[in-house]
Design a protein that fits this description.
The structure is a homodimer. By secondary structure, the first copy, chain A, is α/β, with parallel strands linked by helices. The first copy, chain A, folds into two domains: about 260 residues, Rossmann fold (3-Layer(aba) Sandwich); about 90 residues, formyl-coa transferase, domain 3 (2-Layer Sandwich). Chain A contains 17 helices and eleven strands. The first copy, chain A, has a six-stranded parallel β-sheet with strand order 3-2-1-4-5-6, sandwiched between helices. The radius of gyration of chain A is 26 Å and the shape is elongated. The relative contact order of chain A is 0.14.
Chain lengths: ~400, ~400
Amino acid sequence: MYDLLKGLRVVEGAAFVAAPTCGLYLAQMGAEVIRFDNIGGGPDFHRWPLADNGMSLYWEGLNKGKKSVAIDLTSPKGREIAQALAASPGADGGLFVTNFPVDGFLSYETLKTLRADLICVRVMGWADGSQGMDYTINSAIGLPQMTGPVDDPRPVNHVLAAWDLLTGAYCAFTLVSALLARHRTGEGREIRAPLSDIAATTLANLGFTAETMLAGRQRPRMGNDVYGAFGRDFVTRDGQTLMLLAITPRQWSKALEALGLKEAVAALEAELGVSFATDEGLRFTHRARLYPLFEQAFAGKDLAEIAPAFDAGGVTWGTYQPLEAALNDPRLFKDNPVFQDVRHPSGLTYPAPGAAATIPQDARGPVAPAPRLGQHTDEVLAEILGLSAAEIGKLHDQAVVA
Amino acid sequence: MYDLLKGLRVVEGAAFVAAPTCGLYLAQMGAEVIRFDNIGGGPDFHRWPLADNGMSLYWEGLNKGKKSVAIDLTSPKGREIAQALAASPGADGGLFVTNFPVDGFLSYETLKTLRADLICVRVMGWADGSQGMDYTINSAIGLPQMTGPVDDPRPVNHVLAAWDLLTGAYCAFTLVSALLARHRTGEGREIRAPLSDIAATTLANLGFTAETMLAGRQRPRMGNDVYGAFGRDFVTRDGQTLMLLAITPRQWSKALEALGLKEAVAALEAELGVSFATDEGLRFTHRARLYPLFEQAFAGKDLAEIAPAFDAGGVTWGTYQPLEAALNDPRLFKDNPVFQDVRHPSGLTYPAPGAAATIPQDARGPVAPAPRLGQHTDEVLAEILGLSAAEIGKLHDQAVVA
């Protein structure tokens, strides 16, 4: 944990990936993040993957370093407590991250009566409030039909919930931005982040939409070819599959050098009357001519020969390794100082990451595990809401909290 | 444009997707973002997709609302100017976003001699400084081998550069967070955000790594099946492909209702001695038994029959539509108030988005197009660096700026 966000008190009333990711990023930068859930857990409390004892590895991954409060959110008294938490006190409190509906008991209009300068960041599915999740948003914008081998027309869903993750990071950004604005003006606001708008704006920012307007149809699927440049998967003589990529002139010339392809490519350039070095688009246009040269070069060498030449030349490449191999890769997991061994609520001890970014001049604090569900209920009710031990005891007796 | 970040002066010395996305998000929230590039454009200036006149739709998408300064970054004088810009003056200046190497002329150590409280957010490939891009990081963590149809072992790259995008959003978050810390303590810092650590931490946050440690191997590929719950693509009688998803009990019961599957599924539950409603994992475990029921139900109905029933029941579903259809979808592009018609540097006029999030209480300002390369060189040299007209003229004469 770093302490950039020391002093912030963020309350998270959320589930699934996007909003909890936002809370996680904030916690890893030093904010106090209090997550409330229904007693027994929210809709994501049992999400796969699971430990052998049935605990969710997913839940304990996304809620590291947060405090947990369990509330009966179906009861009026429980809802009142959730509202009071959402509008938590403190100079840098009143920061609420949620995926609850716009119009429900956690609406901005309701909450701002409790704290006028509340900042509420709300993850949504579709911008109009209708039900949408990462996979259905993704199917609506064409990417599954652009993904996968050229010889297979079936749509291919992504396995990584990219829209959820991007929305979570974007929400963390908007929350701290709104806090800066509140410091300046004293005003809070609601910020709505629908997955549908995250996806639509992203495809526009990357030029996909303008391209489709001009062409009348979306980019066709092209397997693993990198669009508009040179890049693809290749197989070495010893059967290793790797990804090779060359966008800049330097990346291109280094790849040719390492593969011994300078002369063959020069001959092709002469034949076609083009220069591949200075225009990555030409490499893409003529990729059907270039691929056989590369395939042949790779087929003549084992990975053990190629790797040192690639690394010495600064070529952009990498093998396709399964995650079990990545776990032993010192650059990713094994010796990565971002990870620390932590005992988790599942009872298992395994490496867990702190913040994804590294601040060389600051010490990384310890990585804190996820809480047990309701672990901080009493602490939070006492310290944040100022309830007495008797009042808290009564709430337990009434099964309003757990 | 919203004005949450009014008064921030951010300088971007960057290329490709991640760091420019960070700058874009900051600009859309009201920061002044000054991008500098080599004269003639950086390595991403001609990236596809292109307009008919050769201008990059990609570049003009990712640089909307920024100012552009063109500098000869190979010359000592040009490098000095870039350094002075990176350490720009102003109470909320000295904010630099880059993907230049850790050790080069834009190193944090160099820049902080120019401004002690500098905040430098640096996108990297691999954390050790070696060359890595989205596609090679992705191939290193196993996702391409988890993606695509079960009956095809070929690795499938993602088409959306998810690691770049997530890194960009995360950098915007860390930059504002570091500014909040600077307001508190007066101290700046360098923040390094390597794609490799963004990817490794994400797979850990979602439970992929713990799952792989326990199983000894990564999750096998499973086509479009949603892991640990119920979800997949189905085809209707009239040949429409749609994505159906049910994670919560409500999503599940609504889907069964709309498809007329309550009795058939109850019979299967009785046979298996399970309850699908309360445990989404069981729906996944027994999906081979459930799929035929759903396939049959969809094969008996046209989309026009199913859609109203799904929508009335709040079912989570969506068709697979190509991007050209999405462009006519009022929820995504056609009537989406996030988009405005803008004339771009390519000379084309087409809708471009402002911020992905919506702040209901604040007015959306106009969407500003990307600059022409070097459009603000003189203005920035005069206003930010305080150079005289004569000095600026001399720099032009020497081809140090353009």
